[in-house]
What we know:
Shape: globular
Number of strands: 2
Low-confidence stretches: 244-278, 423-431
Distance between the termini: 20 Å
Strand content: under 5%
Number of helices: 16
Structural class: mainly alpha
Order of helices and strands: HHHHHHHHHHHHEEHHHH
Helix content: 55-70%
Amino acid sequence: MIARFFSLRRFHLIAALIIAASILVVYSNSFNAAFQYDDNPQIVDNDSLKDLKNIPALLKGPRGITLATFAINYAIGGTDVFGYHVVNTAIHILASIAVYFFVFQTILLVKGCETASRRVGFFSAMIFALHPVQTQAVTYIVQRMEALSALFYLLALIFFIRGAKATTSGGRWVSYTLVAVSFILGFYSKESAFTLPAVILLYDFCFLAKGRLSGMLGRWPVYAVLAALFIFFAVNTIMPLGGFGDLSSESAVNEVSESAVKGAAPIVTPKEASAGFKVTYITPREYLFTQFNVHLYYMALLAVPMYQNLDYDIPRAEGLFTAPQVNPGTKLLIPMPPPIVSLVILAAVVGIALYLIRRTQSNPSSLWRAIGFFALWNFIILSPTSSFIPIIDVIYEHRLYLPSLGFFVAFVLIADRLLGKRAGVLRRAVK
């Protein structure tokens, strides 16, 4: 019966409808949730959003795409939160459906797993859609930035796959053009899309070029465009912001820049500060050591989503071999170990992922290569906020919105394989 469900002729449409309906049921009780923390300075008190004539100026600055959507929201419903939540939820629905098609197309490229492509894509998308860790990116209105950027990121990957598989030059170049457009839209939704070229390179190597660098050479024009955009974004946006340290706009402090529209309200762009447990100073070394523990905490949170918090009181790690002191009364999912412990665990995960990719050189379409790719996925996408460059808030759940997909797909792939083997054993036992 289950196999029949996944073989339905209109399964893609059915999957999309189930994903959308599930999200609406789960998130509909949040539509009247009030503005919180950074919502106030960046939306409610942001005069630059209160006139649609400011949209051209907004689009010239960081996160202009997202800010423009806030301006449209304000024009339609003012500060009534309902409309903002509806748009956030719609973006999450579209992103979750994009997850289904991205994973489906990816698993089709894995030899021997073609029949599992719908199943793996559907369950991966459902976990992505409904996992509690996504709550902050969906219901915290200002974090539309995260979800919208992720949507364009996923679309870029889908268009890249379509371009690589296109049978005509026209179809190929239309798809590759849409990759570049999606990259631009994603970056100007939130700068975390900066990692897209790295993910595309790894994806191409693992799935399309089948582990051969020579197989990637035919796509050099799209890589040249992505490289040019990457450099342009770095020079014109990342460096003026002060580096990746200003990438996460979880801030209650804003920098007012002069409006490009004469006589219009000043354009407000976000800068970094803490919403709650404020860290006033952290060195690059301390930030790096703290991120080892934060990354381990992210993994634990994805596996067991308990004790979630809008603003975690994660202690600063002052040394590699010293366990940071958790403040009295702070409840965390796991104890904070010395950073060296977290580093060893993370290095082991990365090492295993690289090994899985490397060991399948003789069988480049192996399932294990897919697991290796998705294991590395979250490390790459989290890298802008998990390096040695300090950010005042060391941890936020919404940063996991897109990176979490790697964990979910790897989990579904392993579970599908184990359950498939068990089913085979049971069938033989019955016979």
